[in-house]
Amino acid sequence: MRAFSIPLLATATALLLAGTAHASTLILGATVYDGSGAPGRQVAVRYDGDRIVAVGRLKPHKGETVVRARGLALAPGFIDSHSHHDRGNYADRSMPPLLAQGVTTIVVGQDGDSDAPFARVAADFEARPAAINVASYTGHGYLRDAVLGKDFKRTATPAEIAAMQALMEADMKAGSLGLSTGLEYDPGIYSDRAELIALARTTAADGGRYISHMRNEDLGFQGALDELIDIGAQTGIPVQVSHIKIGAVDRWGTAKAVLASLDAARARGVKVTADVYPYEYWQSTLTVLFPKRDFTDIEAARFALTKLTTPEGMLLDFYAPEPAFEGRTIAQIAADRKEEPAATYLWLIQRAEAWRAAHPGQRTESVIGTSMAPQDVADFVAWPESNLCSDGVVGSRHPRGAGAFAKMIRLYVREQHRLTMAEAIRKMTSLSAEHVGLAGRGRVKQGYKADLILFDPGTFADRATVQTPGALAVGMNRVIVNGQTVYADGKPTGAFPGRFLKRGQP
After folding, report:
1. Which of 37, 153, 412, 498 is the most buried (most CB within 10 A)?
2. Residues 135 and 151 in one domain
3. What is the DSSP letter of 156?
4. What digits encode the pLDDT tens for the residues 426-443?
5. Residues 219, 288: one domain?
C-alpha cells in the first residue's frame, strides 16, 4: 500500500501526474461535509478514475493510494454559479485564484454576455481545457447582437424575436444551461418583457433555466424583481436573481422584506432562487447608474453619487483613455480637476464613450462601486434558497474573484456564526449545482464525479482586498477535479482535467 500524509510529498505528486491518478484513492481521517447540508462525519471516501465509488467505513485496498487527512475537512469542490473567469480565454489554465479557494467548476455566459454559439464555446474549451470544469448559459446580448446588430436601441420585432428563438433553441440542443440576461446593460436594456418571455418559453421547452442581472438593483429594484418573477410565473421556467443586492442608500436594511416577497412567490409555485457574493461593493461600468443613458444629465450624476453610491466609493478599476486614473476614485479625480464630482463623473463617461467609438470591440472602462449594507448582504447569504457566487474576473481589482468562497467560511461561519460549516458548504456545492442544472456534481456521494477538496476548517480564509486583489486564499490543502489532483502543497500541479459540462449531462 502506498501511503502519505498531508502535505503531499513531492514524489507522491509526481506519481499522480505520471498517471496513477486513475488508480483508486482512499481519503482517511477527514471530517466529511457531503454537500447536502448534513453535519460533518468521520467517514472515508474512495474515488477511482473520475468518480466517487464508496463513502463509509472503508479499509485500504492493496496497492491503493491512501491520503491521511486527519484534522482536515473534505467537501465537494465549490461551484461558482456566476463567474466571468473565462475572460482572457484561460490564459493561465491552472486558475490559481480559483484553486486556492477550492473552486472546481465555474458557470459563465452571465449577464447576457456570451461570445459565440454554444457549440463553438464548448469546442474551444475542450480543445484547450483548464484545471477546472466550465458550464455556460447563452447570453441574451449575444442573441440580440446576432439578430439586431448595431440597430439594437429598440424593441425587437416579432420576426427578430423568432430569429433569436431559433438561435436559442440551437444552443439548448447543444447543451446550454439556459438563458442569461443583463438588463442594465446594452443591448439587453432595450428589450421588452414580451421578448424575454418568448425566449424564456423556448428555453423552458428544453428544460433550461433563466438567470438575470435584473433591470435595476437600486431604486427600481422591486419592479425589476417583479418582472423576473412574472417571467417565471408565465413560463414555468426556474428563475434566478444574479448577485442579489440592494444598491440604494434609502433602501438599506430592507433585505428581509425582499426575501419575504421571494418566499411568497415560491409559495405560489414560482421557482425563484438567487445567488450572492459576500461584498458590499460591485464591479460594473461607469454608465450602469444611468438607466436613461443620458450622459449629459448633471442631476442624474448627482443623484447617482448621493443615493446610489458616493464619489469616494467609485474606484476606477480599468480606464483605457487614461490608465493613470486606475486605482483612483471619482472624488480624487474631481479634486485634481477642481470641480464637483458629478461633473467629473460625466466627463469620465463622455471621454470613455469617445474612446470606445474610436476603438470598437476593445475593453474601455470598469468601476468598483460601494453601495450595499453589510447586514443586507448577510441576510441574502443566509436565505435558504441563495447560493454563493463570485461574479469574479481573473486579474480584476475587485477581490471577489480570489476571495469570495474563502470569505464565506471565514466571515459567515467562523466570525459571525450566521451559517454552520455544513450550511455554507451546501450553498457552495449541491445548491449551486441544483440552481444551474448540473447533474452528478456537488456531493460527496457514490456515483458522483470526484470533484473534491481538502482544507483546514480553522485557517481557510481570504486575503484578497481592493489593494491586493490577487492575494490567494490560504488553508486549502488539496483540490481534485475529475479524479486528478490539480492543487497541492499550495500550488497548482499543472494538470488540466477540466471538462465542459452540459445541461442534462449525467
Report:
1. 498
2. yes
3. P
4. 999 999 999 999 999 999
5. no
Each residue of 255-285: pLDDT tens digit?
A: 999 999 999 999 999 999 999 999 999 999 9
254 found inside a domain: yes
Per-residue cell: 15: 506519481
228 plus 265 within the same structural domain: yes
Of 318, 352, 369, the domain-final residue: 369
Domain that residue 305 falls in: 281-369
Res. 1 pLDDT band, cuts 50 70 90: very low
Q: What angle do CA 122, 120, 197 make, to 5 degrees?
A: 90
Q: E strands, 207-285, where?
A: 209-213, 239-241, 272-276, 281-284
Exposure string over 352-373, b if 16+ CB within 10 A, otherwise e: bbebbeeeeeeebbbbbbbbbb
Same domain? For 161 and 298 the reply is no
C-alpha cell at 269: 409555485
Q: How far apart are CA 212 and CA 80, in angstroms?
A: 16
Nearest C-alpha neighbor of 48 from the set 452, 461, 404:
452
Predicted confidence band at 394 (pLDDT cuts at 50, 70, 90)?
confident
Q: How many domains does one find in the chain?
A: 3
* CATH, residue 34: 2.30.40.10
* 285, 365 contact by CB (below 8 A): yes
Cis peptide before 117 (omega within 30 of 0): no
Residue 90 lies in a domain: yes
Same domain, yes or no: 291 and 324 = yes
Cα–Cα distance for residue pair 72/489, rounded to 1 Å: 14
Going by their DSSP bridges, the two strands 73-76 and 31-32 should be labelled as: parallel
User: How far apart, in whole angstroms, are the C-alpha atoms of residue 218 and residue 250?
Assistant: 9
Strand order in the sheet with 484-488: 41-42, 31-32, 73-76, 452-455, 476-481, 484-488, 491-492
Look at residue 467 and tell me if it is in a domain. Answer: no
Final residue before a domain boundary, out of 369, 392, 418: 369
Closest among 233, 226, 157 to 195, alpha carbons compared:
157
